[in-house]
Amino acid sequence: MNIHPAYNSIMVSLSNSAQLDQINTYLKDALTHYDIEIESKTRTVEIPLVYGGEYGPDLKRISNYSGKSESEVIKLHSEAIYTVNFIGFSIGFPYCSGMDESISTPRLETPRKLVDAGSVGIAGNQTGIYPLSSPGGWNLIGKTPKTIFNTKNPENSYLKMGDQIRFVSIAEEEFQKVSS
Amino acid sequence: MSIKILNPGLQTTIQDLGRNGYSHYGISSSGAADDLSFRLGNLIVGNKENLAGIEMTLVGGDFRFDIDTNISLTGSKFDAKIDGESLHFYKNTSIQSGQVLSIGQSMQGSRCYLAIRGGIDINNVLSAKTTHLTSKMGGLNGRSLKKNDVLKIGDDQKSLKPIIVNKLLDIDMSKLLIIKGLQSDYISKSTWQTFLSQKYIVSNLSNRMGIRLEGRSLKLDNENEIITEGVPLGAIQLPSNGFPIISFVEHQTTGGYPKIASVITSELHKVGQLKPGDKFQFELVSLEKAETLRYEREIYVKRIADHG
User: Fold this and answer.
1) Could you tell me the residue ranges of all domains in chain A?
2) Rg of chain A over CA atoms, in angstroms?
3) DSSP code of residue B137
4) Is the pLDDT of residue B41 over 80?
5) Rounded distance, CA A6 to CA B140, Å?
6) In this complex, do B26 and A87 lie within 8 Å of one another by their Cβ atoms?
7) Domain ranges of chain B
8) b vs e for A61-82, b when ≥16 Cβ sit within 10 Å of the residue's Cβ?
9) Half-sphere exposure of B161 (CA within 13 A, CB side)
10) Which of B24, B136, B143, B300 has the highest number of chain A CBs within 10 A, making it the mutation to test binding with A?
11) For the domain A44-179, what is the CATH superfamily, name and number?
12) Tens digits of per-residue pLDDT, A18-64?
């Protein structure tokens, strides 16, 4: 069985032997009688990030597209508080909302064949972090030395659904220190 | 107590029936692409139906056995020999230490399965042994098998009695049964007619992640994207180019394309046998019919498990 939340939906997939009518009744019942409490104690997770240069090769593209200087783009990106709405698409990928719309930038026309793990990107008005090296078409603004997803034990990942994120700009030397 | 890969074939992976319960971490279930053939293969050699076995795609591989044991081949018929002598599919077959099982090209569909009594003994990753190639997870280091890989075979003391399969199901590959999807109304009635009346051709860009289809392009009525939401196994997504994609065992767990339909559970095993160039037509059935067929499928496998 799988339960997969997204922005405004929850998908439930069942095993081969499940009884569909019983599960339907159960889910309807649960949705009618369940008191929804908004969890107020969200965690704020800091993501250290080296902006620009070889760490964020598309910073210039974002700057050109938004008409803002590179340092303004960095300021806007690191001042916002983001929310991890859910993890989905591919392994460990966090969908984050909360980015300043003035730095929205459309996806690259030709995706990169390989994006390094830890790369932070912008696609439209979303920002996301590549947990593992993979192909990708997001505009890369920087890179974090933190491992955000624990493939051996996902429950213990550094970043989880519902977390608030703050990107903290760090220097290159610090990146080397954290990653080693 | 092992087998050695002398030649890995085209895409040969360790599979079981999938890694369930992790889709909210972006990990789709993976698992044998043709689950029905995989289950039967295990039952034939006296394994529980979920024990890890080997999936081969279009061209099989060569395996040297360093154990006396029993094997079965199921799924599409591939050219197959033990030390040069042909062997039958869907039969419990004994193989001796030192013998080489050579599997050549497919003479039928896309995949065949090798089940070995005792199963492949390899560590679980997130409670399953299936290889998820796109996530680089499970199986042997999350990858396809390579020349000189050695796989340990499990202890067969817990294995059950081998089973003789007397009657195989007639499988009609000319059609694929579907139910309507969450966004079935994103295409008009006449576009639905086009969708159901045309013959689709399987594109050679298809893989375990998705089956891409070629045919007349379908027109999306208004919006061509939705707010990103969960994508189930078998969902038929329609991107704005109008060519449907069947999301398959290694699918992306969420997506923003409208899902106009879904391949029903009892037909998913057929998707695992589609190969580039194959032609078929979709046929719409009700949810009730889909449920009945799923139930009947489970009864069929259970009967075989109980009586052969």
Assistant:
1) 2-33, 44-179
2) 19
3) B
4) yes
5) 31
6) yes
7) 2-158, 175-305
8) bbbebbebebeebbbbbbebeb
9) 8
10) B24
11) Cyclophilin-like (2.40.100.10)
12) 888 899 999 999 888 877 776 667 899 999 999 999 999 999 999 99
Q: Which residues in A lie closer than 8 A to residue B27 (C-beta atoms)?
A: 91, 154
Residue where the block lists tokens 């690259």: A108
- Region at B82 (left for phi over 0; alpha for psi -120 to 50; beta for the rest): beta
Specify the pairing of strand A164-169 against strand A44-51.
Answer: parallel
Choose, out of A22, A90, A96, A159, the residue to mutate when testing the contact with B (most B CBs < 10 Å): A90
Distance CA A120, CA B20 (A): 29
Contact call for B229 and A7, based on CB within 8 A: yes
Cβ–Cβ gap A88/B27 under 8 Å: no
Interchain proximity B22–A13, CB inside 8 Å? no
Neighbours of A88 (CB within 10 A): 29
Closest CA to B245 of B221, B218, B269: B218
**Residues on chain B touching A96 (C-beta within 8 angstroms):** none
Q: Does an H or E element contain B262, and which? A: strand B259-263
The first and second tokens of residue A178, run together, are 């954290």
- pLDDT at position A17: 78
Interface predicted TM-score (ipTM): 0.88
Q: Chain B: nearest CA to A163, how far in angstroms?
A: 14
E-strand spans in chain A?
A: 2-5, 10-13, 44-51, 82-87, 94-97, 112-115, 119-123, 126-129, 134-136, 139-143, 164-169
Query: Tokens 């037509």 map to which residue?
Result: B281
Give the chain B residue whose CA is nearest to the CA of A4.
B24
Best to test chain A binding among B126, B183, B229 (most A CBs inside 10 Å): B229
Class of the domain covering B175-305: mainly beta
Contact criterion met (CB below 8 Å) for B238 and B244: yes
| Per-residue H/E/C for A58-95 | CHHHHHHHHCCCHHHHHHHHHHCCEEEEEECCCCCCEE
Instruction: Decide: A173 and A145 in contact? Cβ < 8 Å.
Output: no
In 3D, which of B253, B216, B208 has the Cα closest to residue B238? B216
Q: Cβ of B283: how many Cβ atoms within 10 Å?
A: 13
Q: Is A114 on the interface with B (CB under 8 A)?
A: no
What pTM does this model have? Answer: 0.92
Say how far apart CA B3 and CA B26 lie, in whole Å.
33
